[in-house]
């Protein structure tokens, strides 16, 4: 089996590549040309896989570049994960988020329809599509009410995917994934911002952590668990959409409490509220009902919330104390 992963350099792409390799897949990744020119910084999450995967340069902004990659290989499955994935950035630059996320998805679907309509397609939908939630917990039938340009772009991608399935009979499925984390999470997302700063404080390299809304509530799982669900969705007899969630939700404050406690500190001594990290429209509380994924796909998560927090803190401590990785640089750029 040959799979193409867009966004292979990201958190999920790297775990999914590992999972598919372990199943005997030939794994291809679509990456930006600039990444090929700067492999040391851009390929940190996949450096250990480089001799086992094939990378192709293309841009989500360019249909011809995507068309060229799809035309050169007979892919059986395509996991479309590439996106501008940071919600806060989508408020700062809604236009480029929309362009990359909506057109990028449309280009992928159009190229596959033209060249390889039998290739199975996975779209990385998001719980951000629920936004201002219309029911709790959220499931496949819950109406969408996105609260950011990012959320809106994901609703459009979801609708495009369903339309290609209905109009052209393609095997096109969307996962509606709730937040998922892990040691490879980007530094700007709140979980990694917290765990990396905890490590810096413990190492004497920082003395406070600036955050926005501590009462925001999320259903946090582990990326390693969630990429298994993506794979399972493409192994079904018919294409369908699935919510993937832990069913357990916690506030940002609770995440802080646990992360600081992991190194013997009290978060109240270090966390400062900074208005800059509030969003113009917040998604206050998300919690998913993944009954359908659990019954139809036979999927279930293996990590608990406290195991995720512990793994992330311990990983960041190891990076900062053991290997002198430049955590400080990344964190000071984060927001
Ligand atoms: P990351 O931000 O870690 O990875 C995003 C990937 O997209 C990177 O490989 C990045 O490449 C690539 N990318 C971004 N812009 C472009 C572009 N213009 N052209 C080509 N590639 C581009 O995201 P995650 O791994 O966390 O998430 C994967 C997908 O799942 C995303 O679509 C995200 O929106 C969605 N999602 C994530 C959830 C989560 O909690 N993690 C939950 C629900 C959905 P580069 O390295 O070059 O920047
Ligand atoms: P989210 O993740 O927006 O849910 O999107 P993020 O970790 O950025 O925010 C989670 C919640 O924490 C609050 N928050 C802060 N967030 C950040 N980044 N920085 C802060 O300082 C801070 N303080 C409080 C936020 O307001 C928010 O409520 C993630 C991404 O992976 C998306 O791509 C994905 O689709 C969704 O999860 C599901």
Describe the structure.
This protein is of the alpha/beta class. The protein has helices at 11-22, 33-37, 39-42, 63-72, 87-92, 94-115, 149-168, 190-202, 223-233, 252-261, 291-297, 305-322, 327-333; strands at 2-6, 26-31, 53-57, 77-80, 120-126, 172-177, 180-181, 209-211, 217-218, 221-222, 242-244, 250-251, 271-273. The longest helix has 22 residues, at 94-115. The chain is globular and about 60 Å long. NADPH dihydro-nicotinamide-adenine-dinucleotide phosphate binds next to helix 1 and strand 5.
What ions, cofactors and ligands are bound? NADPH dihydro-nicotinamide-adenine-dinucleotide phosphate, guanosine-5'-diphosphate-rhamnose
* Helix-strand string: EHEHHEHEHHEHEEHEEEHEEHEHHH
Class from secondary-structure proportions: alpha/beta
Annotation field: number of helices:
13
Task: Please summarize what this structure is.
By secondary structure, the chain is an alpha/beta fold. The chain contains 13 helices and 13 strands.
């Amino acid at each position: 089996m040959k799979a193409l992963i867009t966004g292979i350099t990201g958190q999920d792409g790297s775990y999914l590549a590992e999972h598919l390799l372990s199943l005997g897949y030939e794994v291809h990744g679509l990456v930006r040309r600039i990444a090929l020119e700067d492999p040391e910084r851009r390929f940190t999450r996949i450096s250990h896989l480089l001799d086992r995967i094939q990378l192709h340069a293309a841009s989500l902004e360019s249909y011809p570049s995507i068309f060229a990659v799809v035309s050169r290989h007979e892919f059986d499955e395509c996991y479309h994960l590439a996106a501008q994935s940071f919600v806060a950035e989508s408020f700062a630059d809604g236009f480029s988020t929309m362009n990359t996320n909506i057109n990028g998805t449309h280009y992928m679907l159009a190229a596959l329809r033209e060249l390889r309509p039998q290739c199975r397609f996975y779209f990385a939908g998001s719980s951000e599509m629920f936004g201002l939630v219309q029911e709790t917990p959220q499931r496949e039938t819950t109406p969408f009410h996105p609260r950011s340009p990012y959320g809106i772009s994901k609703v459009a991608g979801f609708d495009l995917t369903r339309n290609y399935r209905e109009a052209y009979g393609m095997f096109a499925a969307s996962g509606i994934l709730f937040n998922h984390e892990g040691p490879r999470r980007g530094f700007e997302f709140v979980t990694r911002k917290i765990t990396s700063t905890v490590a810096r404080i413990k190492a004497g390299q920082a003395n406070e952590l600036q955050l926005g809304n501590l009462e925001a509530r999320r259903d946090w799982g582990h990326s390693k668990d969630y990429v298994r669900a993506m794979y399972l969705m493409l192994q079904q007899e018919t294409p369908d959409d699935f919510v993937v969630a832990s069913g357990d939700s916690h506030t940002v404050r609770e995440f802080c409490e646990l992360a600081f406690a992991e190194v013997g500190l009290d978060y109240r001594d270090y966390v400062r509220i900074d208005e800059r990290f509030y969003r113009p429209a917040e998604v206050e509380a998300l919690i998913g009902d993944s009954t359908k994924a659990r019954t139809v796909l036979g999927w279930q998560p293996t990590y608990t919330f406290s195991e995720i927090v512990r793994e992330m803190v311990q990983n960041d401590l190891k990076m900062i104390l053991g290997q002198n990785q430049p955590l400080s640089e990344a964190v000071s750029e984060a927001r």
